[in-house]
Amino acid sequence: MYICLCHGVSDKKIRKLVIEEGITDIKGIKKCTALGSQCGKCVRSAKEVINDTAKDLFKQAS
């Protein structure tokens, strides 16, 4: 699913960055993608994807 329609950033891309690069905040995602740099409506949804992915990783590690 596309999270940022303006720049074509998907939830899969965000999850991949969290899992493989250890990025856990919007600032880190913005460094790797153009997320949130145009209209900004995607930032809230992106935060949810980041948090959900981090929670899943924590549960797997426990």
Automatic annotation (TrEMBL):
Its cofactor is [2Fe-2S] cluster. Pfam families: Fer2_BFD. It comes from the Bacteria. Keywords: 2Fe-2S, Electron transport, Iron, Iron-sulfur, Metal-binding, Transport. Residues 2-51 form the BFD-like [2Fe-2S]-binding domain. GO terms for molecular function: 2 iron, 2 sulfur cluster binding; metal ion binding. PANTHER family: BACTERIOFERRITIN-ASSOCIATED FERREDOXIN (PTHR37424). Belongs to the Bfd family. This is Bacterioferritin-associated ferredoxin. It comes from Vibrio coralliirubri.
